Each structure stands twice: as C-alpha cells, then as structure tokens.
C-alpha cells in the first residue's frame, strides 16, 4: 500500500500517501491504521516523521485517536470535502514572521490554561523537561568551544517543553493548532533562524531563565503570571531572531 519516501519533507510525503490511500478507498472509514512502528517500516522513515504526519492528518480531520496509540480513519466520508486544496494551504511555505504572530496569540493563552489545569503528573513532566534544558546548559558551560554540538539537541528539548505546556492546557482543539505551529517550526528555514539564538551562550542562559519563570508560574497555579511570562519569552525570542 505504501512506498518508501525520499528525504525531502518526509512527513509531508507520508501525509500525502496516507491521504491518497483514504481518497481512493484503500483505507476506508473505520479502518485502523498500522502502528507507528509498522508505518515507519513501510515508509522507511523515522517514528518522529510518522508522528508529524499523523498530527497533520489529525489537523486535516482525516484520522482520530482511539485509545493511547491507535489511529482510526474517521467515519466521515472524506470524499465530501476537497482536502487537496486545504492540504496545499496547510503546507505552503510559512513565513517566520507569521509563526511568531501565531505563537504570540496562542502560547500566552495556553500557558495561562496550563497554570489553571495542569495536574501533578503533568507538572512532574514539565519539571523533568526543564531539568533537561538546564543539563544541556551545564554541558555547554563545560565545553564552550563545542557549543554548536548542542544546538539541535537543545532545540528539540525546548520544543518538547513547550508542547508539554500545550498538553497541560487540556484543550484538544488548541493543542492541535499549537502542534501544527510547532511542527512547522521544525522546518529547515526555522532551524537556521533559531540557531542564531541558541549558539550564543548568554542568550541560552536567558532562555532557560525565562523557561524557569514560566514553569514557576504554572506550578504556582497563577494564570496571569504564566500568560505574562510566556508572552515576554516569545517576544524576547522574536527580538533576538529578527
């Protein structure tokens, strides 16, 4: 049913293939999708690319989650909607300025909701994730000459920190949109921009300080403080980048 994908924009190619299989009837409403591991083997891709593709398909409304892991093709008739036009709009090249505009609208509100709604398990995950960011900073302190070796790792852990806050907001619709924005941030042009920040040791310290302020506000169950801390964080990042 599926064929191995090329390296360029892997998650988009995976999304396209699954969408096409739905549209031509190879995958029918109600059919279970293979597991992430099975899909990774079928496409010859990493599980992270599979997860990005599945998130995109959920945003498009073509699949839904049932249980913790299994994805099910939605029971709605996908032929009733022209998904091709929507898909092209969703995955056209995004402006970094538009990304920040979206983040400034979304993330302060999401942080505020997380401060209201995060449970103890989610707080524990956030604390653990923040410690990962601090650990990378500590490694940079002891190996300043090779800071570039830590950039990609820090960026991924930074993204995971923000996604955990998104999950803690307990709003499934907001989280779908939020995930779409962060998925876009993984594109190559975004990585190039963010490297300008992460490669600077002092700015890295500042980012972690701001992450700590956001975390403390969420732990304190203070929605307004969390909103302000996140807004300041995103604005400072935008200023550093542009």
Summarize this structure as a short list of keywords or feature phrases.
Arc Repressor Mutant, subunit A; Four Helix Bundle (Hemerythrin (Met), subunit A); 11 helices; 242 residues; mainly alpha; 2 domains
Task: List strands and helices in order, with pairings.
Elements: H1 10-23, H2 36-43, H3 47-59, E1 63-65, E2 71-73, H4 83-90, H5 96-117, H6 120-142, H7 151-168, H8 172-184, H9 188-198, H10 201-219, H11 223-241
For the largest beta sheet, what order do the strands appear in spatially? 1-2
CATH fold-level topology of the largest domain: Four Helix Bundle (Hemerythrin (Met), subunit A)
Total separate domains: 2
Alpha plus pi helix count: 11
Kindly report the name of the CATH homologous superfamily of the largest domain.
GntR ligand-binding domain-like
Strand count, sense and barrel status of the largest sheet are: 2 strands, antiparallel
- Report the strand count: 2
Distance between the termini: 44 Å
Q: What low-confidence regions span 5 or more consecutive residues with pLDDT below 50?
A: none
Query: Oligomerization state of this entry?
Result: single chain
Helical residue percent band: 55-70%
Second-tier CATH architecture of the largest domain: Up-down Bundle
Mean pLDDT: 82
Specify Rg, calculated over alpha carbons.
19 Å
Secondary-structure-derived class: mainly alpha
Q: Tell me, what is the CATH class of the largest domain?
A: Mainly Alpha
Instruction: Identify the overall geometry.
Output: globular
Percent in strands: under 5%
Reading the helices and strands in chain order gives HHHEEHHHHHHHH
């Amino acid at each position: 049913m599926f064929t191995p994908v090329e390296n360029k924009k892997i998650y988009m190619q995976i999304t396209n293939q699954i969408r096409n299989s739905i549209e031509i009837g190879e995958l029918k409403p109600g059919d279970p999708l293979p597991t992430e591991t099975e899909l990774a083997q079928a496409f010859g891709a990493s599980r992270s690319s599979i997860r990005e593709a599945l998130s995109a398909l959920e945003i498009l409304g073509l699949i839904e989650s049932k249980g913790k892991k299994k994805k099910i093709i939605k029971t709605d008739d996908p032929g009733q909607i022209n998904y091709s036009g929507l898909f092209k709009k969703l995955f056209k090249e995004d402006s970094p300025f538009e990304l920040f505009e979206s983040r400034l609208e979304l993330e302060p509100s999401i942080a505020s909701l997380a401060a209201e709604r995060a449970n103890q398990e989610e707080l524990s995950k956030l604390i653990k994730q923040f410690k990962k960011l601090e650990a990378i900073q500590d490694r940079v302190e002891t190996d300043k000459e090779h800071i570039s070796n830590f950039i990609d790792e820090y960026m991924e852990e930074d993204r995971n920190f923000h996604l955990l806050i998104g999950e803690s907001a307990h709003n499934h619709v907001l989280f779908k949109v939020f995930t779409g924005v962060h998925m876009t941030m993984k594109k190559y042009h975004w990585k190039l921009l963010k490297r300008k920040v992460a490669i600077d040791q002092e700015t890295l310290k500042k980012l972690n300080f701001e992450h700590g302020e956001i975390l403390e506000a969420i732990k304190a169950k203070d929605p307004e403080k969390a909103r302000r801390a996140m807004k300041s964080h995103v604005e400072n990042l935008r200023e550093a980048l542009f």
